Amino acid sequence: MAACSIEDVLAKAEKDEAEKLKSITVVKELDLEFDLGNMLAFDKNPPDIREFRQKNKDDFLRSLARDNTQLLINEMWKLPTERVDEVIVAKLPEPTARLPREKPAPKPRPPTKWEEFAKLKGIQKKKKTNLVWDDVHKEWRRRWGYKRAKDDTKEWLIEVPETADPNEDQFAKRNKAKKERVAKNELNRLRNIARAQKIKVPGVGLAPTEQQSKSELGKAIHVAKMSTASVGKFQERLPKEKAPKNTGKKRKFQPLIGDFSSEKQKQLDILKIMDSKKPRLDINKAVNKQMREEDMESASKKKKGAGKKGRKGSFPGKKGNFPGKKGKGAGSVVKSGKNRKPRMKQGKR
User: Where do Basic residues bias regions lie (predicted)?
Assistant: First the structure.
């Protein structure tokens, strides 16, 4: 390693100090165009090709970027400033240059079912005033919401209809009807959103129709069983009830974004197996396969051996198995009658 003199070290230190303390005044032949709203600067000066070829390209580009940034900062310091939380903040003007969008423009919202119906019938939307006259309180009140006009929920007396049960609680009936209206409006709102997004509306339980199909009833029973605390583990099955379809384990796919370390390791393992000359042997799998083959072979041998055992003539349909006929064998037995004793067949002398 060559020794460095003191003069070289001092010269290098002075050069570094000069680089840090460059002048904020930059001279250009043509003035830059600034868009301070977007914090942009447009330099129309042609680059010095001779200097670009003689000097290091990275140093030349770095120096050019530093000079243009210095000019942009000088212009930003001319803007009006204010102090916010002990920090000086400049008020940027409106941008003049139109930059391209990072993402595509949003698509127009598809019309709802009511908007399509109103367009078909020529119904125009009329803006209603927020205040209406309340004849009961003799004052202007809101049309909707808290302290609205004609608010029947604040009545302390309700007239019982002639056809209604006199013992029925009309206040509870009115509250129940209001909750049902709110739930129905919410359901319609969600259906409109699903229809606009072209998504199939999932049905839970029984559909609000007069007649339900067999599949709908089965689905409702399955949802009711799975709604318990044990997720239907201890629910008994009905007689002749079939297992619900599409309730097995679903395939899990690897995520498209996030940590790819596991996927990378799997791909490397596959390439390692493909690149290796010797086949990869799973010992446990091979041993289990061999044991199964031996068990199957021994079971087939036992089955064949069991079929060969037994006396001759034990199967019907063979010659000499029926009573009253003479058999060919030396030990065949002939039966004819109840009290008659069996006799042995004599062979030829």
Answer: 301-312, 337-349
